Amino acid sequence: MAAISISGIGSGIDFNAVRDAIINQRAVPIQQLQTRVTKYNSRADGLKELNALLAALTTATNDLTRTDVGTGRSASSADPTVATATATSAANLGNLNLNVTRLATNLTQASRSFASIDAPILAGGATSATFELRLGGAVSGTEITIDSSNNTLAGLRDAINAENAGITASIIDLNGDGTQQQIVLSSTATGATGRVELVETSATGTATDLSLRSLNPPDGDFSKLDAVFSINGLDLTRSTNNISDAVSGLSLTLKKVGSTSIEVKQSTEIEEKLTALVTAYNAIQDFIAAQYKKDAEGRPGGVLAGDSVLRNVQKQISTIAGITSADNGGALTSLTQIGLTTDKNGRLEFDKAVLNEQLQTNADDVRALLYGKTTAQTGVFHAAYAVSNGLSDNITGSVQTAIKGYESSVKNLNDTIAKRTALLNTMRDTLTRQFAAADAAIGQLNGQATALSSFLTSLTKQSRS
Fold this sequence. Notes:
It is built from eight helices and 17 strands.
């Protein structure tokens, strides 16, 4: 259908302006609804930002209810090039003197030279020979066989490597011209107990003909493969440089010969978790304060200023700093006793020196304050978590409920706007048709009036003549 237009030529009236004035007047309620949509969307976005901050606080408070927080230990070495250390909660606090005399190493052996890697290795005309790869001087081990299918230096290498028995074999070209080939056997584990030896179990003399000699240790004394060290003057040996069975709760990694001291300290986890809590708590307080920051006209500029949900959050969050626990099983009852206080603006301040002093003298009481001395007791952060989670939970939290309320209102408003806009468009089309018809009718009447006037004028002239 062709679009209807109003020329206004026939009537001399600007019906377009009349129609648009009517439509604009009827559009005012729609514009008001659109303003409400913008406002509700802004509040929903503001609450989503707030809820993200609350979620961070919920995580921080929940972390402080874990019963393993603060039970750990940290270990450090005065010279980490000599040795490094890690500690568990079983380690005692204090210092250890460590002296490393020898590192644990791998057994390495080499054969006599062969003219090529394809040179046969079976001795005395034997057609086959059996061997075992024996770990740590054991009387038996992983069996390999050399026969016509692999009777070469390369065949022996491949047979050993195929078993993955804790030993690797490689062939070294001594002169670089292929005439001096030796097989080198290296145990993958360190120490005398980690060594793997190639032992012939047949009687061909092939092992003897290989003439394996010890490269490490040079004198073949397998005990020299072990690490030798002392802790506080006590001499110890181990087959590995990774030692976890010398000091309870302490793991050492020996790096080189030398001396160092190992310090075992209380874990800094409680300090780190409390710092995260303070950061999350203050981020919320800063967000709330920003909502009430005044603009140039002296009015609060935040989209949530005065919002009942924001006021509720502010009220409940502020209670966290003042939570006490009189029945946690320890001697401490409030956060102020571990260095957490509030300033005049409601933000948390953390005096780490106060916390560390308490940890040095009353570590068990600090942990009891956080989460309770036993599973039957609760600390301050069980209550703090309940407050924060009640606000931030993505399903039942009061902030999330408010967000859903705004989003539902926006949907309903948009539906109403769409319906009213459709009606307004229909009205516009109707008015356009009606005014076009009126314009044409008035134009026709105006034409008839002009013709009648001309006829009367003509009659008048004839009568006079």
